[in-house]
Write a structure and sequence with these properties.
The complex is a heterodimer of chains A (394) and B (185). With 394 residues, chain A is mainly alpha-helical. Chain A is built from 16 helices and no strands. The radius of gyration of chain A is 21 Å and the shape is globular. Chain B is built from five helices and four strands. A four-stranded antiparallel β-sheet of chain B has the order 2-3-1-4. The chains are: A mainly alpha (394), B alpha+beta (185). At the A-B interface, α11 of A face α4 of B.
């Protein structure tokens, strides 16, 4: 059974992409200082969702999960967006590092003047980590590891349809285990590099897990949304409310996990009240950013806690669709308040530049992902757990 | 039923969880009431077949948790605010709300502790389990590798014991034994 990407869905994604392009042009002309941080924000979110797809597959391979094989072609298709997202981030890094532009910039520490004169940067050990060559080298490492493993896992899965047997499953298990170890490190360092180093004087040891919690939660929301889109087309009849119940359980669990890490980070910094660290939260609670920060807390914790708690809530398609959309927007706001206070500072707004670009990237992501999804069968053919997945019942 | 004599039962012994479930379904479809199925591990979906009511322990858990939250905040308020205000890290000493982030971990732990313990006691109480209880399992093999279905004859007065045995013989039953309840009904 194949998915055909066309008709209204294709037109919608193209319209969204046109809106996004208009937002980029509008942003470059009318609000230049908000342009690059917003591209980073969106590129990061959709890179996170893509790699979240690979993590979803790898976790279930390593843990011998069964039910996920019913939907595994969807997170596999997510990874086709990964190179786009990561190369946009790489382009932003190279531009910021070498253009020396005063208007279009994101990372404060990339300024040569900053590297020469800033005492905290020089004396705190950050000067060894945040250097231009090492930074770009790490970025290339992330691309190699993330894209390489995503590509390899996807290839093994598609090959399995043709050759059958258990060989590819074993290879996938080994590759997944190695990937998860490497991802445990690179997801933290990636979060430090792209997001935490925006506030170059600040650091938090919780930041990697904080980003990972949001990343995996958002990825699961997107998986649920795309699976429900396919079900609305009358495809994937083998996927029923039991599978969606499990995906929504992951959304619920990682919403709580995200809150746990958010609060752990906040509470320690609030309690110690160290000037080096508390600045991060002063910027987010004593300025107008507090509306964004508090809204993101409500949407990412209070909302899923109440809305997705009940068993029936996790099994009703319309309910999941609404919940997943709200949580994705909640994490957009969360990463918005991570990136913006250090880059655009008090000149921020949530206007056409921001929301138009977000819509554009949604269109871009769906255009690539749904296109990739339509090229292959929606059900893996020879996956050893396929029968278990089809009889999944909770 | 006389109070001295325990009710007569039929014990149907099965070797396989799926066969037990299928047999239970076929008996329930024919209007037989099954009192209990003893099995070494939970059989997925058997509660729906037997028509066991959904547990309400999750609802009561919410109230236990709320009790825990309240007690934790009351304890912290009494200890750290009311009775002996502490100056820790220069935080406002006489305010619960302004110090709340610091109290969240303890509140969380006590919420979990109290709700878990009370749920546990509730479970033991509603299952009538207590120390020194006699074994109520009619066939000890059900703790090893057999699945034992207990049908109480008094529950099924419209059909005779032979009819029930006839129905059981159509399923993949391993043995059918006559027995009686080990406890007073």
């Amino acid at each position: 059974m194949n998915y055909t990407f066309g008709g209204k869905t294709k037109i919608l994604t193209i319209v969204l992409m046109v809106v996004g392009l208009a937002a980029i042009i509008y942003g470059a002309v009318a609000t230049p200082e908000r342009l690059l941080p917003n591209i980073l924000l969106n590129a990061f979110i959709f890179t996170a969702i893509s790699i979240g797809g690979t993590v979803f597959i790898a976790v279930h391979y390593a843990g011998q999960g069964g039910w996920y094989s019913a939907v595994k072609r969807v997170p596999e298709a997510f990874t086709s967006f990964l190179p786009f997202g990561m190369f946009i981030i790489l382009a932003l890094i190279i531009f910021d590092m070498f253009s020396g532009s005063e208007t279009f910039k994101i990372w404060e520490w990339m300024d040569p003047e900053f590297q020469k004169n800033d005492r905290i940067y020089k004396n705190s050990g950050k000067a060894t980590w945040l250097t231009n060559g090492f930074y770009i080298g790490r970025m290339i490492g992330y691309i190699a590891i993330w894209w390489g493993f995503s590509y390899y896992l996807r290839k093994l899965s598609r090959q399995e349809d043709v050759i059958g047997g258990l060989g590819n499953h074993r290879k996938s298990m080994i590759a997944s285990s190695i990937f998860l170890v490497l991802f445990g490190v690179t997801s933290s360092t990636g979060a430090w590099d792209w997001l935490m180093s925006i506030d170059a004087h600040w650091f938090s040891t919780m930041f990697g897990w904080y980003t990972f919690g949001g990343l995996f939660c958002t990825a699961n929301c997107m998986i649920a949304l795309v699976v429900l889109h396919l079900k609305r087309q009358g495809l994937m009849p083998w996927v029923n409310e039991n599978h969606l119940h499990d995906i929504t359980k992951l959304i619920f669990a990682f919403s709580i996990f995200w809150t746990y890490v958010w609060f752990s980070q906040y509470m320690l910094i609030w309690y110690v009240n160290n000037p080096e660290e508390i600045n991060y939260f002063l910027e987010r609670f004593n300025t107008d950013y507090k509306y964004i920060t508090l809204t993101s807390l409500v949407l990412n914790f209070v909302f899923p806690l109440i809305f997705l708690m009940h068993r029936n809530a996790k099994r009703t398609y319309g309910w999941i669709t609404f919940g997943a959309c709200v949580i994705v927007f909640g994490h957009y706001l969360d990463w918005f308040q991570v990136i913006m206070p250090g880059t655009v500072k008090d000149k921020w707004a949530l206007g056409f530049t921001e929301l138009g670009m977000f819509a554009g990237f949604i269109g871009f992501f769906l255009f690539i992902v749904l296109g990739a999804l339509s090229k292959h069968a929606l059900a893996p053919k020879n996956h050893p757990f396929l029968n278990e997945a089809k009889q999944h019942h909770i | 039923m006389s109070k001295k004599e325990h009710s007569k039962t039929i014990l149907a012994v099965f070797n396989d969880p799926d066969e037990t479930k299928a047999a239970a379904q076929s008996l329930v479809d024919k209007g037989i009431k099954i009192r209990e199925i003893y099995c070494p591990f939970p059989i997925h979906g058997i509660d729906k077949v037997l028509g066991v009511k959904a547990t309400r322990v999750s609802t009561i858990a919410f109230f236990y948790g709320a009790t825990g939250t309240f007690l934790a905040l009351l304890m912290i308020w009494y200890m750290n605010i009311s009775d002996w205000a502490m100056d820790i890290g220069g935080k406002p000493a006489f305010s619960l709300s302004q110090n709340l982030p610091a109290y969240i971990p303890i509140t969380f732990e006590l919420t979990v502790l109290i709700s878990a313990h009370l749920m546990n006691f509730t479970y033991l109480f509603t299952s009538r389990l207590f120390p020194g209880l006699n074994n109520m399992n009619p066939d000890p093999r059900s703790t090893d590798d057999k699945f034992v279905m207990e049908i109480v004859l008094d529950d099924n007065k419209k059909v005779s014991a032979d009819d029930i045995k006839g129905m059981l013989s159509q399923t993949k039953v391993a043995e059918v034994n006559d027995s009686h309840l080990l406890y007073k009904d």
